[in-house]
Design brief:
single chain; alpha+beta
Length: 105
Amino acid sequence: MKSMGDGTSTRVWLDKWVMDTEPRRPMDKTSMNLRLLVSDLVTDQDSWDLMKLNEMFLRVDVDRIMSYQPKKNYKDEWIWAYSKDGKYNVKSGGWLVSKPIVYQP
């Protein structure tokens, strides 16, 4: 999953950057611009553009996205979503492999 920094390398519709019970992409309610970056959803004041969020995403995703603070001075980075420190370890990998697979159409 992508950990949010400035949003300049995270693609809104292609990267998993919303954390629910599992890392996932946001659910859309409009047509998708596959080139859209998360940084395009942040204002010059380094806060989320609430009008854009409400226009593009379902309420549940707007709430989740608003819980992340954009960090203009940090780059986005890939993290392991199944450990507290964001780094892979054998224990968390074993836990993930042992989970039953649930098909979600």
